[in-house]
Design goal:
Blueprint lengths: L2 E7 L3 E6 L4 E6 L2 E4 L4 E4 L3 H18 L6 E4 L4 E5 L2 E2 L2 E8 L3 H6 L6 E11 L8 E2 L1 H6 L5 H23 L3 E8 L1 E4 L2 E4 L8 E5 L9 H4 L5 H13 L1
Antiparallel strand pairs: 1-2, 2-3, 3-7, 4-5, 6-7, 8-13, 9-10, 9-12, 10-11, 12-15, 13-14
The structure holds adenosine-5'-diphosphate, thymidine-5'-phosphate (TMP) and aspartic acid (ASP).
Length: about 230
């Protein structure tokens, strides 16, 4: 594999072309942002951990029948992925009340939800990622109805798989965000799965083991990411 031109510089990752037109190289940075890029920081070593955790989650999901973009980990901070035509949506699944749901519905953080909630957000930095429903998605032609149904089904399956996997490590899966893209007429799970885009709480102490430590200035950010890596892979 030969690293090619820079294709996209994102907030947490950089994406490069490769000598294979169907594959991209994703480089995980230590940069962290929150609140739509308003807050900036560096979490030393985050890129290495998120690359390892994403590899772990994507492999576990593939083993359980969830097709995704992961090809192989090729460096400490680099993974090879299938090049997708990305769907400009963020698909969020929630099991407990946290984050924006606290503000929007006035519910107490940590309240368990009787059924998981699925939400869609328009991936647009300029608009601040507004929430969408199915009708907005159809009207904006962001995805076809069958693609949307597929994404929702996969998102809920991912929720069940990750929830069980994490529960065995004494971690509650509070919520998470997924992204999808098209490849050869199929919708595949893409991007990353890490403490940057999931909320993980210790089941017993309810200690936050994710990016909320950075968002809320709680300290011990890298330590929380390392803890997740250790619990899952060591
Ligand atoms: P952001 O764009 O929100 O700043 P990142 O820094 O994580 O996010 O950048 C990674 C970018 O790569 C994202 O825009 C994401 O949608 C995109 N991406 C993720 N997986 C793939 C893939 N398999 N093919 C093409 N693009 C992808
Ligand atoms: P929220 O409670 O802030 O809406 O976030 C829900 C989940 O989505 C949480 O696990 C964090 C993740 N997320 C992202 O990955 N990117 C984002 O831009 C936002 C707003 C949330
Ligand atoms: N990734 C988003 C941003 O930069 C927000 C977040 O994860 O809280 O700004």
């Amino acid at each position: 594999m030969i690293k090619g031109n820079l294709l996209y510089e994102g907030k947490a990752k950089t994406v490069f072309e490769t000598d294979n037109p169907n594959e991209l190289l994703v480089y995980f940075k230590d940069d962290a942002t929150a609140f739509n890029g308003e807050k900036h920081g560096t979490i030393e070593g985050k890129g290495v951990i998120n690359n390892k955790l994403s590899e772990f989650f994507f492999k576990q999901l593939k083993d359980r029948g969830i097709k995704n973009h992961f090809v192989e980990k090729v460096g400490e901070r680099e993974m090879l992925v299938k090049k997708l035509d990305m769907i400009k949506l963020e698909v969020v699944v929630r099991n407990f009340v946290a984050g924006s749901l606290v503000k929007r519905l006035g519910l107490e953080e940590g309240t368990p939800l009787t059924v998981p909630i699925v939400e869609y957000y328009y991936k647009s930095d300029e608009l601040g990622d507004p929430m969408l429903n199915r009708w907005h998605i159809m009207a904006l032609d962001l995805a076809k109805i069958d693609e949307l149904n597929q994404m929702e089904h996969v998102a809920l399956s991912v929720n069940t798989i990750l929830r069980d996997l994490l529960r065995a490590k004494n971690v509650d899966l509070i919520d998470f965000k997924l992204e999808f893209g098209r490849f050869d007429g199929e919708v595949l799970l893409a991007d990353e799965i890490s403490p940057d885009n999931c909320r993980f709480w210790d089941t017993v102490t309810h200690e936050k083991l994710d990016k909320d430590r950075f968002r809320q200035d709680l300290g011990g950010v890298v330590e929380a990411y390392q803890e997740m890596l250790q619990r899952l892979t060591l």
